Amino acid sequence: MRRLRPNAPLRSRYCDAVQEDVQETTTADGRRARGERTRLAVIEALLALVADDVSRPTARQVADRAGVALRTVYHHFEDVESLRGVAFELQLDRHKELLQPIPDGLELHERVALFARQLRTLFEVITPIRRTAILDERASVEAAGRLGELPAIRRRHLESTFARELAGRADKARLVDALDAATSWHAWEFLRTVRARGPLAAERVVAFAVGSLLGS
Predict the structure, then answer these.
(1) Separation between Cα atoms, residue 186 and residue 127, nearest integer Å
(2) Strand ranges for 107-187 from DSSP E
(3) Cα–Cα distance measured from residue 172 to residue 123, given in angstroms and rounded to the nearest whole number
(4) Could you tell me which residues come within 8 angstroms of residue 209 by beta carbon, excluding any fewer than 6 positions away?
(5) Do 74 and 104 meet the contact criterion of CB atoms below 8 Å apart?
(6) What φ, ψ does residue 87 adopt, rounded to 5°?
(7) Last residue of a domain, one of 38, 60, 77
(8) What whole-number distance in Å separates Cα of residue 205 and Cα of residue 189?
(9) Which of 94, 184, 188, 200 has the most CB atoms lying inside 10 A of its own CB?
């Protein structure tokens, strides 16, 4: 039996349509990828500025640092406050794994030392963007909620690391609150700025406070 062959012009039109769809998809994917790269460049520009002690960078400063037009900043972010919030979230996502689980089998003084060292490493990298977000925390409920993520992570890590010492304590709630306060970013900032302690000296103070509270 003779097989019927598809109509050649129809087949050609079909192939052309498929090729156009592929090209449109590829173009759209390329635009999205470029947009994401530009957005990340804007965030990195803000992080670079605050790391250089520019406490409250303007949109113009961010645009200049990123090498983009000012309108590009506002294309990706509603305002500078939202940009600061996203930058803080990015830094936290990048570095929160620095709070690694500490083996329960270690002696208390060893766990205290490792805990304080982890805090020092995390706080030092987070501090520039955390400082610039302080005013947002006071003025915006959304920003306060976003910035509350780090304290929650740190407190859970604290309770997990010293679960053995906290177990069965009648004053556990007060003790955890005291440890939480002693190991907070605000306490770290006080040591680093008001008391002018270096990172290692501040780490030793934190370790001393935690060890003293836990009876080490």
Answers:
(1) 10
(2) none
(3) 26
(4) 182, 183
(5) no
(6) -65, -40
(7) 77
(8) 12
(9) 188
Residue 3 maps to a domain: no
Look up residue 152 and give its two tokens: 């929650």
| Residue (of 160, 133, 113) closest to 55 by Cα position | 133
Residue 1 has pLDDT above 90, yes or no: no
Residue pair 186/206 in contact by the 8 Å Cβ criterion:
no
How far apart, in Å, are the Cα atoms of 176 and each of 57, 108, 190?
Answer: 37, 16, 20
Domain of residue 30, residue span: 8-77
Residue 64 falls within a domain, yes or no? Answer: yes
pTM score, whole prediction: 0.75
pLDDT tens by residue, 120-174: 999 999 999 888 877 776 666 565 666 778 899 999 999 999 999 999 999 999 9
Tell me the chain's radius of gyration from C-alpha atoms.
26
Q: Quote the pLDDT of residue 149.
A: 85
d(CA 125, CA 100) in angstroms, rounded, equals 16
